[in-house]
Amino acid sequence: MNNSYNNSLVFKSIFTTQNIVLANIGWGVLALLYFLLFSAKIPAADGIESRAEWYVIGTNIFEAIAYLSAGILCLRNWLSPQIVSGRNVWLSIGLGMLSYFLGGIIFGYTEIVLKEEPDVSLGDIFFVLTYLFLGTGMILAVASRRINLEKWQWLVVLAIALFGSLLAWWISMQQETPSELLVAILNWFYVVSDVVLLIIATTLLLAFWGGRVSQSWRMIAAAAFSLYIADMWFKYAQGPNYQSGEILEVFWVFSGMLFGMGAALEYDASLRRTRRTSTRKRA
Q1: How far apart are CA 119 and CA 167, in angstroms?
Q2: Per-residue pLDDT reduced to its tens digit, 26-58
């Protein structure tokens, strides 16, 4: 019994909010250094420059761990009855993180092991689920809070919506029109979803600004921005000479890392709020 109690104390002392946040920041810094130091292309025997396979495997590992840990932290919020923003919010976001994790694993396996680069793969099912779950979770977060933004805040939302839409449209116009209908539908689904998430994230950031859980939703907004940057770069860079592992793809790692940090900060803020309420009741 004592051993079980002691193990629980050790677990709680290690997995504190501060340690989780620091671990995520450290993971993001390591990922950035990894991308910066090892992303250079190496001349192959056939004269075509390409990145080392071990490097591509490493980028997949950085992404997988970031999204898996974020999914676990989000589901921890879902299991907590004290969570401020609503358990269903974090269930949806957590499922989105885990869907992205599975999609990334399948994408990496197809690219690295099977040496294939299909326009549509099984991984796309999970990437589509990611956007649906994330969108649902963030919309639930907006619905749970009365949106009362000032005029300048609505102008900020409008400006970001216009900029995000125009950039996505311009990048899409630079690409060749896919011959397959399914590929075209998926491409536009990803573009529209990125822009929608960007708009919702901006609205959430301004709506929660200065509130009890403002720090966590700043992280969530930054995560959505990071996802937008990585996705737009991926769409822009796609072509016959595209190879995984470009510098800006590190924003996929940042996105997972920031979602995890947001979940951890929300969990901590909710526990602190519960303790304060209990103290006032006793008094």
Answers
A1: 22
A2: 999 999 999 999 988 877 666 677 888 899 999
User: Distance between alpha carbon 179 and the CA centroid of its chain, in Å?
Assistant: 30
Domain range enclosing 187: 18-282
In a domain, 188, yes or no: yes
The verdict on residue 13 lying in a domain is: no
Alpha helices in the chain (DSSP H): 2-14, 17-38, 53-79, 87-108, 123-143, 151-174, 181-207, 214-237, 250-282
Residue 4 lies in a domain: no
- Domains contained in the chain, number: 1
Residue 10 located in a structural domain = no
Instruction: Flag the least confident range among 129-143, 150-164, 199-213.
Output: 199-213
Give the span between the Cα atoms of 245 and 142, in whole angstroms: 34
For the chain, the average pLDDT equals: 85
How many CB atoms neighbour CB 134 within 10 A?
Answer: 27
Query: Which residues fall within 8 angstroms of residue 183, CB to CB, at 6 or more apart?
Result: 119, 120
Angle at alpha carbon of residue 246, lines to 121 and 71, rounded to 5°: 60
Look at phi and psi of residue 82 and say left if phi exceeds 0, alpha if psi is from -120 to 50, else beta.
alpha
Strand partners, 50: 42
